[in-house]
Amino acid sequence: MKRSDWYKHIWTLDIKNQSWTEDTEKQVDFIIKTLSLSGNERILDLACGYGRHSLSFSRRGFSVTGVDITKEYVDDATKTAQEMSLDVTFIHADIREISYKEEFDVVLNLADGAIGYLENEEENLKIFDVITNALKPGGKHFMDIGNADYAERYFPTTHWEIGSKMLALSKFGWDPATRLMTYVGRNIPYGEIMQKPIIDMENADPIRLYSLSELEHILKIRGMAIISSFSNFTEIPSSAKELQLDVYSIKQ
After folding, report:
1. Crossing angle, helix 52-59 and helix 24-34, to 10 degrees?
2. DSSP secondary structure code for residue 41 in this structure
3. Is residue 57 helix, strand or coil?
4. Which of 11, 109, 213, 251 is the residue whose CA sits 20 to 30 A from 125?
5. With 0-12 CB in 10 A as exposed, 13-18 as middle and 19+ as buried, what is 27?
6. Cα separation of 51 and 242, whole Å?
7. Residues 6 or more apart whose Cβ sits within 8 Å of residue 125
8. Poorest-confidence range of 8-17, 178-187, 233-242?
């Protein structure tokens, strides 16, 4: 079993080659449309990674602050922003450490945004406190996470995804008692001699997944209300038949 702070140590810029990073612009388009953003909003991107969404929003004229725990990501995002002359701020920090108070019009947690990654449920819920505190009244939140209802129905399972640079293999497990998904991913680059992927589920990433009903309760007690939910950054409503859960909520 991985150490409880596994999420602090595993990230590298190799992630840029992952197939799921290829839809960034489409995802940003969807968020802007769904949240009816004008372009004047101030955005906080939590667990922003190497800044792919933050940079895209900034290119479109938004004021953006991105926060991530991985220094290599923050350094790379800052370098890209400087090269592109973009007005976007990247902060190297654990997102639990930031203390914004009603400063942002929009808060984002994309590609999980660290939701469910932390040491225990108490720590995981602190992310929702950060979200609520950072939003202005009437502010909007959008999260893109794994769906616990899907996990309960279909895990354990294996997924294949065809990217432009590689074939991605994902193996998922599920513990219904703890509601932890266990995940191992292996990449098979095109043009190289293929080796049999080693799938060690004993060393899998443990991620706490939430259902839509759980999220509704968590957000409600923090003064947030869910407006709509979708699957896979499309107009398709969220359901137990789709792993990707996109949730749009507003601070009341």
Report:
1. 60
2. -
3. helix
4. 11
5. buried
6. 26
7. 218
8. 8-17
CA angle, 7 as apex, 96 and 12 as ends, to 5°?
Answer: 115
Place of tokens 């997944």: 209
47: tokens are 């667990």
User: Which tokens in the block code for residue 220?
Assistant: 């409600």
Percent of the chain surpassing pLDDT 90? 83
Query: What is the rounded average pLDDT of the residues 127-147?
Result: 98
- Report CA-CA distances (Å) from 142 to 2, 88, 132, 179, 194: 29, 19, 12, 22, 38
Which residue in the block uniquely carries the two structure tokens 């995002």?
77
Q: Is 109 exposed, middle or buried (0-12, 13-18, 19+ CB in 10 A)?
A: buried
Nearest one of 93, 35, 64 to 247, comparing CA atoms:
35
Show the tokens assigned to 28.
Answer: 């940003």
Write the CA distances from 200 to 19, 30, 172, 186, 250, integer angstroms.
21, 35, 11, 10, 40
| Cα 223 off chain centre by | 22
Distance of CA 158 to the CA centre of its chain: 21
